[in-house]
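Batch job 17 of 40 flagged for manual review because the log was empty.
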Amino acid sequence: MRLKLLTLFAVFALIVAACGDSSDDTTTTADPGGGDTTTTAEPGVETTTTTAAPPGAVAGEGGELLLLQWQAVTHLNPYTGTGTKDIQAASLVIEPLLEYDSDGNLSPALATEVPTVANGGQSEDLTQLTYTLRPGVTWSDGSAFDSDDVVFTYEYCTQSEGCGSSAFGNVLNVEAVDDLTVTITFDGATPWPYVPFVGGTEPVVQREQFTPCVGEGFVACGANTVPIGTGPFVVNEMRVDDTVTYVYNQNYRGNADGKPFFGSVTIKGGGTAEDSARSVLQTGEADYGWNLQVAPAILNQMEAEGNGVIEVGFNTSVEGLRLNQTDPRGNPPSDYANGTNPNPFFYQNAELARAMSLAINRQEIADVAYGAGGAPTCNVWPVPGPALSSTNDWCLTPDAAEANSILDGLGYVDTDGDGFRELPDGTPMAWDYVTSTNQVRQDTQALVKRDLATIGIDVNLRNEEASVFFTRNSDLGIWKFFWDMQMYTNSAVGSDAQGYFQGRLTSEIPESTNDWGGNNITRCAREDFDATWTELSQTGLEDPNRNELIKQLNDMFVEYCMIPLINRGSVSAFSNSLTGYGVINGWDSEFWNIEDWRRA
């Protein structure tokens, strides 16, 4: 197994030096192979990566590429608020202005460069960002891509209830200066402005195709499954929660350079993570298997067959327990309702969350379920460096005795002798604990259930198929959160914490009135959190206080909203016949450079 540990501190340091922050589950990338040349105009901010195709290469000559995502694809539009499975699948077709490369550096996609103060793209007062678009880019239908499509994407999201993006929360306006120039105006100084139209979660969509999707038709719009894009592939057929097939885009800007190599791509969903791993590593039937939550001993045995390799890369992915701050027994269930529907167990209950966290043996979870692909963590922002909080390091040492003492002090005692505690009003300390279906998560659930039982808490283990669990409008999905506790992984797109924590603002709470849009899935509403994020958004990247603000946001969120468990490495399998994909990272889609993938 080849382990790629990303030097996140180096990435953060480079960003600071240069400038002077969904869903697996809710958001997530791959080494440009031999022959790559990388030039960095401003380290950590802009890289331009090009991989030369062999002389005489012809686009589409490489046959079929078979990719397995056991969490099957539901939509091909990240703005519908679905998970990483959909973001990845969409990234073959629709593109952002900037993307993140495998080292966490910003790289131009549909823009010509990363705008900064130094190159005149960012205003001196940090309130505006101006992009110059690549000339000559066309949509796959042959029509011209221009700044009007960028403006429309902003309008499309901000004018539609249920848009899953939090990128436009501090944007006042997006203006087309001319066909190839677009300016974003923020509501105040924004030191880190690279959130709107950046990364696989924030692509540009075509005005002509998506105009009927604005407003009430947003989620149900047919364009969500067959988007017209500027990327290397075009959707051929979409079978929801099953299979997507693509053919290469004959209007793609890289065609003249022999890109993409593959003539068709199939993303096959369903089955289990273990099935995907076996198909790549043992039988050789597939080229790639994503998000392999498989027991490490089993993965190692499969890799020993010699048909492929396992790649692991650490980033911001954290598997954790989400504690619903609203009551799933309310009417309507799990609605925030301006704070009038509090959860009887978890609402602002920092002591209960601390007791639960103390009871859990994270190292055992890492050893049993993750191996080299996981490390215990107490933080939701686990990036090594000056913004890494140490406040919660107590969680790394399980202490059931202290946890029991905390619960005793809260008045949670076992009055009926069944071995489990009750709230002072007699409500049993028991609730549903839900996650997606795969063996690693079920193993984790079993260990957590055992540990919580030692402090008198009972949980009912449930798991749902990933294709349902990570779908926003499903009653069995994480956004509706119609139970008390759920577990999944969330990752940042990009190496700055500002954009990540933006999705945890009170304004980002999903509820029935906004069609379950927004990314603050725990419904954690804190005025102090919102105020701290606002201060962060106005603090320069070179200001040491920025690191302290990130720590504060991390500590507030894990106080009672979420219990982090494991810093998960991205684990995927690649056939030995594939080249050009490089190394995994969590900064963007693992398919960010799929136009460079080739078969040896």
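Reviewer: the log was empty due to a logging misconfiguration, but the result itself is present. The longest helix spans residues 545-560. Unflagging and moving on to job 18.
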